[in-house]
Design a protein that fits this description.
By secondary structure, the chain is mainly β. The protein contains six helices and 17 strands. The strands form two sheets. It has a 15-stranded mixed sheet with strand order 10-9-8-7-6-5-4-3-17-16-15-14-13-12-11. It has a two-stranded antiparallel sheet with strand order 1-2. Strand 9 and strand 10 form a beta hairpin. It is globular, with a radius of gyration of 20 Å.
């Protein structure tokens, strides 16, 4: 098997306004920042040939309307836990295979049915606030749902903003843009692994898709943006624990001292009622836990509800932002 080699520069990610530049220089010297990533010569094949699947799933619950769920948030960031709010929006929509965007004129050849998740985390850290917006597009026909078609994440705070994108192109193409000069604009390639950002979509599509035991995972973009973690796949371990209401999916990434528990009710297409993320926070490296608890949910075509008369729905869902 022929192998192609690419020289790539791993990214150092947002730590904080005060010491980000110093830390990135310390962690990424000119010697150790160069890494060789191997890709199979078959990467020149089209996505259609690389990632086909005979599986298809009934996603009628998300068709024609979306599930919009709001969560109270206690966010572990820096040396404290901060108040905030999160929103999860799940909806099925056609996705362009070639252009990897929502298809304007979808048909059976040019598009695939995908479950879109929008996740918005908003929280304050002392005097200033954060907004992190993640979108994941997961095919539930034609292709393997473990490997989403696309992931994007934008992070904004008073320091500035950063943007991250992953495209499925026979492996994942990872690109980043940042307001920090030391980061620059970077593109690298990562072999197929389960993106952490895709796990919630896998839960909503089918519990059987969740990785059990050892598996390779790509950490979530929001986690990468909040830590000094190299962009690569890491060894993880997953398990499902059944309970009275449904199940808990939990996994850990030992190398990062990161663990996640997601609490799921089996009604309403595996609705997520709560989740917890535990990890060492910058600057002191102490392990802290972010906790998300469901406080409101509506199934609705929200894109039509944009008049002042619809604002009462925000109160019903207990939205703060």
């Amino acid at each position: 098997m022929k192998v192609k080699y690419f020289l790539v520069i791993p990214l150092a990610f947002l730590i904080g306004c005060n010491n980000e530049g110093a830390d990135s220089k310390k962690e990424n010297s000119p010697v150790d920042s160069i890494q060789v990533i191997a890709k199979d010569a078959g990467s020149e094949k089209s996505l259609l040939n690389a990632n086909l699947s005979d599986e298809s799933y009934d996603m009628s619950y998300f068709s024609g309307q979306a599930e919009v769920a709001t969560y109270s948030l206690e966010k572990a960031r820096y040396e404290d836990v901060h108040p905030g709010e999160a929103v999860l929006v799940f909806v099925a929509e056609p996705f362009s295979i070639k252009n990897q965007v929502k298809a304007d004129r979808p048909n059976a050849e040019n598009s695939v049915k995908a479950l879109k998740m929008n996740r918005i985390d908003r929280f304050s850290t002392g005097v200033y606030d954060y907004s992190q917006f993640t979108s994941v597009f997961t095919p539930y026909e034609k292709f393997d749902a473990k490997f989403p078609m696309k992931i994007t994440m934008g992070s904004q705070d008073w320091c500035g903003q950063s943007f991250y994108q992953i495209n499925n192109r026979n492996g994942f193409e990872f690109s980043q843009k940042s307001y920090f000069e030391s980061k620059g604009d970077t593109v690298l390639n990562i072999e197929y692994a389960v993106p952490e950002d895709n796990i919630m979509n896998l839960i909503r599509i089918s519990k059987d898709l969740l990785p059990i035991g050892d598996f390779d995972v790509i950490p979530s973009a929001s986690y990468l943006a909040s830590s000094n973690t190299k962009v690569k796949s890491y060894l993880a371990n997953g398990a499902i624990v059944l309970d009275d209401d449904g199940f808990v999916y939990e996994y850990e990434i030992p190398e990062l001292s990161r663990s996640v528990k997601i609490y799921v009710t089996t009604e309403n297409q595996n609705r997520i009622s709560k989740w917890e993320e535990t990890y060492p926070t910058v600057f002191d490296g102490v392990s802290r836990t972010s906790v998300y608890v469901l406080k409101g949910v509506k199934v609705m075509p929200y894109w039509r509800m944009n008049s002042s008369e619809d604002e009462g729905l925000r109160k019903e869902m207990n939205l703060l932002y």
